Structure formats: structure tokens, C-alpha cells
Amino acid sequence: MNDRSETMHRVTLQGVEVPYARMGSGQPMVLLHGGGGPVTRFPFVDELARRFEIIAPIHPGFAGTPIPEHFDDMQDLVYLHLDLLDALDLHDVVLVGFSMGGWAAAEIAVMNCRRLSKLILVDAVGIKPGGRESRDIADVFAVTLDEFKRLIWHDPAKAPDFAAMDEAQQAIFAGDRVALGLYTWQPYMHNPKLPRRLHRVTVPTLLIWGESDRLVTPEYGAAFRDMIPGATLVTIPEAGHAPYMEQPARFVEHVLSFAG
């Protein structure tokens, strides 16, 4: 551990209360988590907080927070985080999005790069490079927990034991799944219009991918890269959909090499 001293804050935006963690010091780095919930509990954040001021909001509906009645899809989340960047008056931001959060980050960059300096997408969803009948993204709502582990992890034996969760943890897990469905269901895990908008991303962009990701494969990542002007893609061996969990040192190395 370092001396990052994580502190939780709250800000109300258009009637929606948004909790966010803030830690470290330096250039701001905003972390948008994926369907697994907040990432600040993982050790890689400690390392990044040595070089950056980490701001990590919790998407409404995750980690036991309520879903606003007027929220319908990903666009509501994207505009909420655009408002958050304005409310905190952040500049020169390194925006990092994980999985579903990577989709949100890409949408934010398409709309307005004014507050951003760099963009990092980690095993992001959000596009559909194949045809109508192609299964570009595995359906996480139609598989068993064991199948889900095989999709997400390089080594499924290291995955969390869902059966060992207590009642409170199970309630949060179930709530996270509901929120994930709200933001990603129609159409599933992508915006059909996003590929024709990604040319608007005007900041340096890095895509980080786990070589063993079976939810969205490295080939999917390469297709995503090719839609963003000047973007680069790096893959991390022995890692699945969450390389920051299975290979945190390699993950941090790539982030610092690009953003530091």
C-alpha cells in the first residue's frame, strides 16, 4: 500500500447523486468501471495513485446505489459523466474505461474531447464489427456462472467464488447485473452508430486487451482500434477480460508508458 488515502465524495447532478472515490495527486485520471462494479478495491489503483489523482465514480445502479427512474440506456450514463467532468472542472484528463465503462468513455470522447488529454479503453465493448448474424460479444446473460468465468478469466480457478458470497454481497451482485442490463441490453453491448462517430476522437488513444478475453476477443479489440484515428492496441498474455486483475503489474506498466 502507499499513502493514497482514498476518500469518498458525492455530487448531485441533475437530481442524481453520484458517489466517487478520489485519491492520489497529480494529473487527473478518471476511471469508469465495467459491469463488475468499482475497480478502486484492486491493488493496481494504488500504483496509479502514485502518479495521478484518481477520480472513480460509481455508475448509478452499481454497488448498491439506486437507478434513477429516468435512466433508460447508456446515453443517460454518458451525459451524467460529461456533467461530472464539468462539475469537478477537470482538465487534461486521462480517461480510462473498463469493458462497459470503456464504451461510455468512447462515447464521451466522441462527444467532447475538450477536457481530455488521453483515452485508454480496457477490453471495451460498444461496437459490433460483424454482420447481423455474428456473435461479436458473448451473451453474459445467457450463460451459467461457470461459463461466465471461462469467458472472463484466463485462469477460471482464480475467479471469485460466487457461492461463498454472503447475503449482502449477493444483493449487490444481483443489483449490478440489473444495472448492467439496463445500460447494455438494447441493442446488446453496442451502439450501432458509434463506429461512424469514432473518427471524432482527437486525443491519443490506447486499447489494452487480455489475450485470453473470450467475451470480446483481441480481434474485436483490433477492429475497435482501427475505427479510432491513430489508436494503438496492446495485448497482455495470461489475462482475460480484466487484465488489471490477472496481470496488474503488466497492466500498470502499459498505462504508465502511455499516460505517464
Model description:
With 260 residues, the protein is an alpha/beta fold. The protein has one domain: Rossmann fold. 32% of the residues lie in helices and 20% in strands. It has eight helices and eight strands. The protein has helices at 44-48, 74-87, 100-111, 145-152, 167-184, 218-226, 243-246, 248-259, and strands at residues 7-13, 16-24, 27-32, 52-57, 93-98, 116-122, 205-210, 232-236. It has an eight-stranded mixed sheet, with helices on both faces. Helix 1 links the parallel strand 3 (27-32) and strand 4 (52-57). It is globular and about 45 Å long. The two termini are 20 Å apart. The model has no long low-confidence stretch (mean pLDDT 95).
Question: How is this fold's topology laid out?
Answer:
Layout: E1 7-13, E2 16-24, E3 27-32, H1 44-48, E4 52-57, H2 74-87, E5 93-98, H3 100-111, E6 116-122, H4 145-152, H5 167-184, E7 205-210, H6 218-226, E8 232-236, H7 243-246, H8 248-259
Parallel strand pairs: 3-4, 3-5, 5-6, 6-7, 7-8
Antiparallel strand pairs: 1-2, 2-4
